[in-house]
Design brief:
binds NADP nicotinamide-adenine-dinucleotide phosphate; 20% strand; globular; 464 residues; seven-stranded mixed β-sheet; 15 helices; alpha/beta; Aldehyde Dehydrogenase, Chain A, domain 1; binds magnesium ion
Length: 464
């Protein structure tokens, strides 16, 4: 795999300040596929300076011109989609077909949506005797995880650019090659020097330096709740804007009137895709007591279709493998019943786990409360609708969810009572313009569409 040995700062690849590097590993075969520099606070400082220097010019660039550059960026992402898919597959392990459709496909859609929004968003509006201006917040520090490596970058960078902000990105240490490819794409798209900057490195060094830097006006973070809490505290102390996209433990609520086979099949697929490494995955399947045994049989059969090494890729690294196996063991210890998969290694090499389904899970078990981030579904029985609602809302998280019913209106009535930021009704399709983000400890702020753009704007009102 192609790897740059420098940082992308001020429109060029510059040597890193320190000598340390990060080895990038292919989780499917555990082989090292490249090295990238491990950024230091010095690299972060240089990148923030470049972003600050570029900010006045980019903020003053007409929205139509910003839209044209984001549109050009979308075009580069489309033209290089095969290379993007291969890179994501090499460093994340996702099957190539999934990488093409989702890891390469969705970022192009999202970039396209922001090209459109930059051109059409009302950056000025009249309110009575006032004119309200929406102005860019300034320099954005973006910190992203590895699970949807390009999507999470684009979901921050595209709206920031549309708003007129400049950006310093610290991507996940596990997936820096995709981020380097994105940096190349910004250059090809003709973004002015310093508008987008990349510092690869580890979270506790480069990430921390970026989140705490005085020259950063807004920190946008996606990742674990534990790190999000720290970043929120640092940003709060500095009175800095912050957006946090954190974990989830979403419920797939199957009401008795639903098409059970479809709801279970789609529900299992939702968790197994990307090897369960999706913050919005519906990892708790809630089924009425009377339909429970049938649902468990259907779920086990659906999971069996996700053969490790074929339809399902590995987990991203050895640490995540240990973590996920630990949760599966904990589920068994706490009395849940394995009906598919388990903690054993399905293949000789690679960080694989088997698609796993637990039955007889009670709402208070660890596997029903904590984010596992692996291909593990817990099937939970409920007595009636009130019980289902209590269970659905009974975690610290509130990122996503699903409701299935015979009539859409019945599902919508239930969805209105869920404490969560997104609900798919009877298998609703992904909408790149719909706001995405969490209630409760799943986060602060929204990404995507006009709500995502608003995160990067601050308002000034002029009275006449
Ligand atoms: P993480 O540590 O929260 O990583 C997210 C990003 O934050 C990475 O770029 C990381 O760098 C960086 N980071 C880590 N510590 C930091 C610090 N002190 N200051 C600033 N930045 C910091 O997540 P993880 O370790 O990759 O995964 C652990 C768990 O988080 C998973 O099992 C899952 O439950 C959850 N997770 C959630 C999402 C989501 O989309 N909500 C995504 C990924 C993970 P490094 O790459 O160097 O760690
Ligand atoms: Mg980490």
């Amino acid at each position: 795999m192609k790897a740059h040995d420098g940082m992308y700062i001020g429109g060029e690849w510059r040597p890193a300040a320190g000598p340390d590097t990060i080895a990038v590993v292919n989780p499917a075969d555990e082989q090292v596929i490249g090295h990238v520099p491990a950024g230091t606070p010095e690299d972060v400082d240089a990148a923030v300076r470049a972003a600050r220097a570029a900010f006045p010019g980019w903020a003053a660039t007409a929205p139509a011109e910003r839209a044209a550059r984001i549109g050009a960026l979308r075009d580069v992402l489309v033209a290089r989609r095969d290379e993007i898919a291969e890179t994501v597959t090499a460093e994340l392990g996702a099957p190539l077909q999934f990488s093409r459709a989702v890891h390469a496909g969705v970022p192009a859609l999202v970039a396209g949506s922001y090209a459109e929004l930059a051109a059409t968003h009302p950056f000025e509006e009249k309110v009575g005797n006032s004119t309200v201006l929406s102005e860019p917040v300034g320099v954005v520090g973006a910190i992203t995880p590895w699970n949807y490596p390009l999507h999470q970058i684009v979901a921050k960078v595209a709206p920031a650019l549309a708003a007129g902000c400049t950006v310093v990105l610290k991507p996940a240490e596990d997936t820096p090659l995709t981020a380097q490819l994105f940096a190349e794409a910004t250059a090809e798209a003709g973004l002015p020097a310093g508008v987008f900057n990349l510092v690869t490195g580890v979270g506790s060094v480069a990430g921390q330096a970026l989140a705490g830097h005085d020259g950063v006006d807004l920190v946008s973070f996606t990742g674990s709740t534990a790190v999000g809490r720290q970043i929120g505290a640092v940003a709060g102390a500095a009175v800095k804007r912050v957006a946090l996209e954190l974990g989830g433990k979403s419920a797939n609520v199957i009401l008795p009137s639903a098409d059970l086979a479809k709801a279970v099949g789609v529900g299992v697929a939702n968790v197994m895709g990307n090897s369960g490494q999706t913050c919005s995955a519906w990892t708790r399947m809630l089924v009425h007591r009377d339909q429970y045994d049938e649902a468990v049989t259907l779920a086990a059969a659906a999971a069996a279709k996700y053969a490790p090494g074929e339809r399902m890729g590995p987990l991203v690294n050895a640490k995540q493998l240990d973590r996920v196996r630990g949760y599966i063991e904990k589920g068994v210890e706490e009395g849940a019943r394995l009906v598919a998969g388990g903690p054993g290694a399905p293949l000789e090499r690679g960080y694989y786990v088997s698609p796993t389904v637990f039955a007889d899970v009670t709402p208070d078990m660890t596997i029903a409360q904590e984010e596992i981030f692996g291909p593990v579904v817990s099937v939970i029985a409920y007595e009636d609708e009130e019980d289902a609602l209590r269970i659905a809302n009974g975690t610290v998280y509130g990122l996503a969810g699903a409701v299935w019913a015979g009539e859409e209106s019945e599902a919508v009535a239930f969805a209105r009572r869920m404490d969560t930021g997104q609900v798919d009704i009877n298998g609703g399709r992904f909408n790149p313009l719909a706001p995405f983000g969490g209630y409760k400890q799943s986060g602060v702020g929204r990404e995507l569409g006009s709500h995502g753009l608003a995160e990067y704007l601050q308002t000034k009102s002029l009275q006449f």
